[in-house]
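User: Here's a structure from my thesis project, written as structure tokens. My advisor, Dr. K., wants to see whether a designed sequence matches the one we expressed. Can you design one independently, without my sequence as a hint?
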């Protein structure tokens, strides 16, 4: 059975780890992002087919879909490209940051999904099934101070995922969502805080966060279930983080 997955945002963090994990399990992978050098390095390691694409650019997304179709099709899509910009209050944040977050986390996800749906349907015709998984966040389930723009974008991505699942009812295409909490990836918080390395290190101090590999393992696990099993929403947090508001710092120990 053809197993070919398109992973957006594959040049770093969770996306790169996801491509590695799928490749280890014998899947063909298509790695998508804007930075070609990083994708090429990942391809050397995993055999991924590289497609350079900005998911916020509709023409590039159309070309992405055409290249996926021409190079072997797809039976799975992981919409992972995304991120946060700024940690300012609703009152003091910038509309440009909000627009940029909405563009990549919501519109980009929609464009890529819409462009690839015909390709996934073709995959489902050949193999019986296809799958879509959207990477949202616990920030898309609970708002927090300073999270407004990112919360709004990830709440929207969560809503889009639910609407899509309803719209595809009757087709052999599962629509899944993975919402991680605190994950320590190299670039996510650094980008959010515009390169301030000291501030970006703080959320991960005295706590064991998830790694990109932890997320990838669980994510790929959802694709290893029988194809009629749809894990609608997987919420994944480190044990030390019992909610967005409760992160235990310091060692964990049984209560006396
Ligand atoms: N880290 C966390 O704590 C955390 C928690 C929950 C959810 N998430 C979500 O998980 C996903 C991955 O996060 P991460 O921590 O792995 O972040 P990351 O390391 O910053 O990776 C983000 C990826 O998205 C790509 N990307 C960004 N804008 C793009 C665009 N316009 N077109 C195509 N690709 C684009 C980036 O590649 P290029 O720059 O090369 O394009 C990069 O590969 C994101 O959706 C994030 O919101 C992260």
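Assistant: Designed independently from the structure alone:
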């Amino acid at each position: 059975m053809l197993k070919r997955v398109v992973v957006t945002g594959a040049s770093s963090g969770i996306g790169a780890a996801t491509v590695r994990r799928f490749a280890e399990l014998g899947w063909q992978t298509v790695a998508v992002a804007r930075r070609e050098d990083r994708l090429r390095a990942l391809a050397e390691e995993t055999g991924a087919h590289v497609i350079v694409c900005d998911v916020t650019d509709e023409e590039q997304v159309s070309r992405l879909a055409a290249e996926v179709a021409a190079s072997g099709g797809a039976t799975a899509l992981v919409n992972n490209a995304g991120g946060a910009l700024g940690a300012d209050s609703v009152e003091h944040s910038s509309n440009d940051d909000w627009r940029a977050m909405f563009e990549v986390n919501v519109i980009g996800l929609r464009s890529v999904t819409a462009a690839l749906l015909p390709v996934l349907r073709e995959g489902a015709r050949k193999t019986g099934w296809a799958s879509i998984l959207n990477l949202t966040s616990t920030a898309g389930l609970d708002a927090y101070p300073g999270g407004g723009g990112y919360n709004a974008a990830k709440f929207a991505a969560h809503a889009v995922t639910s609407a899509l699942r309803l719209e595809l009812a009757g087709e052999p295409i599962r629509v899944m969502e993975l919402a991680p909490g605190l994950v320590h990836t190299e670039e996510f918080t650094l980008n959010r805080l515009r390169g301030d390395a000291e501030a970006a290190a703080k959320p991960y101090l005295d706590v064991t966060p998830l790694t990109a590999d932890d997320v990838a393992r669980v994510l790929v696990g959802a694709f290893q279930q029988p194809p009629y099993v749809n894990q609608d929403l997987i919420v994944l947090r480190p044990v030390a983080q019992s909610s967005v508001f409760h992160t235990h710092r310091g060692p964990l120990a049984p209560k006396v």
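When you compare it with your expressed construct, this may help: The mean pLDDT is 97.
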